[in-house]
Write a structure and sequence with these properties.
Oligomer: single chain
Distance between the termini: 27 Å
Radius of gyration: 21 Å
Mean pLDDT: 73
Length: 361
Amino acid sequence: MTSTGPAGSATGQVVRIDAPRERTRQQAGPRSQARRRSGIRGLIRRLGKARRPVLEAARAAAPVARAAAAPAVRAAAPAVKAVMPAVKPLAALTNPLAKVIGVEGAPRPILAIRHDGVDLPALPEVMRHLFPAADDHLAVFVPAAGEGEQVWRSHAAPLGGSYADRLAAALRWPTLDLRYDGGAELGEAALVFSTLLQDVADAWPVPLKRLVIVAHGDAGLLVRSALAVRSLAERPWADAVTEVVTLGTPALGTDTEALSAGVGRRLDEALAGIAVVPTSALDVPTLPHVDYLVVSDRLVGRPNPFGRVIGDLLWFRHRASRAGRHVVDLFPTAERFEVDTREHPLVNHPDLHDALLRWLA
């Protein structure tokens, strides 16, 4: 199946999730190649009852990490309280620490690191305690807006764990969960995300060389926009990103003015994987050093009979007038994969367990 853009030009071949990637990382050495040849599917079956060593160690270390960070946090509280009246709006966007130190009236940040059901600050002490054996790679899981980190454990029990569990047990990948409340304009949310990821990169025990982001739903649009935020840090977090894996993220974008009025056509657009994004975000470029791996439901992007029945015309991309619609391919350089989600959701799909282990090996 070939996906087509608004003008009918091919934007990329959509293949089954178990197909090999078109591009492989040049950094992959003999060890990674041996892992691929060893048969990942058999490894997944053997890990059905495996526990996640890194997660267990992190849970045990969490109280110690909070206790170690407490003196510095308490010492900073008076200064933060003194300036909060003047910078409260900015703190709402860029200072997750405000909520942690208990600044009265500080709103809940829209994005935060999550562990054991609580928000954690991106402090070096916290990272060292959570990941005492941290290496130069990290996988960050970002749920869709309004979802918590627990979404990754949906339907996980029959599969022997979540994506993070498997990556930690099989490949020793450290993983971080984020919370994304949503509610902010995409540009603001992208700034908050970029600030948080820069804090993580700065606090990581060793310089990051491979940062992988797995995003569900509209969080993929958040990551796409955040990668375009310029950082003045000595080691910008975006430079360490090697792969962005989006699960169910709309691959096409349009602005509000471009949407049609017909109910059926709007439904078709939603089912076709088209998102409404601010006009300024339509032309955000993808980064040349990042591999974008777009995973979608097999039914998304195909003509929808239901919308055709209740709507006024056919799916807009099959219309002769489609050239006049301003629809942008949001991931023009992506490799595209599809899975059947009738039995398993994208947040915990057996085929994706296999694919992530292959991609991150």
